[in-house]
Amino acid sequence: MKVIVVKNAAEGGKQGFQVFKDALANGAKVFGLATGSTPISTYDEITSSDLDFSHVTSVNLDEYVGLGPDHPQSYNYFMHEHFFNKKPFANSYLPDGLNKDAEAETKRYDKVIADNPIDLGILGLGRNGHIGFNEPGTPFDSTTHQVKLTESTIAANARFFDNEEEVPKYAYSMGIGSILKDKQILLEAYGEEKADAVKGMIEGPVTPDLPASSLQNHDKVIVVIDEAAASKL
Ligand code: GLP
Question: Is 82 a catalytic residue?
């Protein structure tokens, strides 16, 4: 892993932009995208730049089950607000949170990933070390699946909803096995509340107890963290 420590998320966004730009210049055709507050500075840099990525594809990591594109807390809505409405890709894929048939939806999404192999995947990091919505205990060879969210993730994401009751209990997520097939990975993490997960990811044992530690098995990972997230290294 190449670890880059920056002052804050704004600086991290500049690093993230550079990684995206380099990948594009090297011929990347498919970008894996994450939601959450973390990648916003990178997305802002990308969408306000003059980069032309109108010919490439994006594939998102995950979506809440039960929330459609019109729901302000759906990941589909988030991606349009922070990225696609500003500067679109040729095609953008997300899991369909409104498809109640989990088996059909996860199969459909695995085909999307197989048809669009990801050149650069952008990841955030959950406080418990999750990537996408792959919670602790998820096997490293997992493909797209329906996830029962942990209490910790529901509590962490409750700040975006009126109350904790409204946070969906399930999500569809790309699996760790699929993420590890990304040709290159950029993981960003900012803030002190990520420091334990960052330490486990970089220095800890490779274990499903901390899903992001699986990235130690990947040979092209760039980690961009701020000083607070790096404080326990
Ligand atoms: C959610 C998403 C993850 C994201 C994580 C961290 O659980 N499924 O993809 O990395 O939140 O969010 P944030 O970047 O807001 O801290």
Answer: no
For residue 173, what are the domain limits? Answer: 2-203
Largest Cα–Cα distance in the chain?
Answer: 45
172 φ/ψ angles, rounded to the nearest 5 degrees: -100, 135
Does any ligand 1 atom lie closer than 6 A to the CB of residue 126?
yes
Task: Tally the domains of the chain.
Answer: 1
Q: What percentage of the chain carries pLDDT values higher than 90? A: 94
Task: Confirm if 166 and 71 have CB atoms less than 8 A apart.
Answer: no
Q: Is residue 161 part of a domain?
A: yes
The confidence score (pLDDT) of residue 163 equals: 87
Looking at residue 122, its amino acid is: I
Residue 111 lies in a domain: yes
Domain for residue 70, yes or no? Answer: yes
Any catalytic annotation for residue 209? no
128 is catalytic: yes
Residues 6+ apart with CB under 8 A from 199: 232, 233
Q: What is the 47 CA–ligand 1 centroid distance (Å)?
A: 20
Give the burial class of 137: count Cβ atoms within 10 A of its Cβ; 0-12 exposed, 13-18 middle, 19 or more buried: exposed
Question: What CATH number should be reported for the domain holding residue 126?
Answer: 3.40.50.1360
Whether residue 219 lies inside any domain: the answer is: no
Does ipTM come in above 0.90? yes
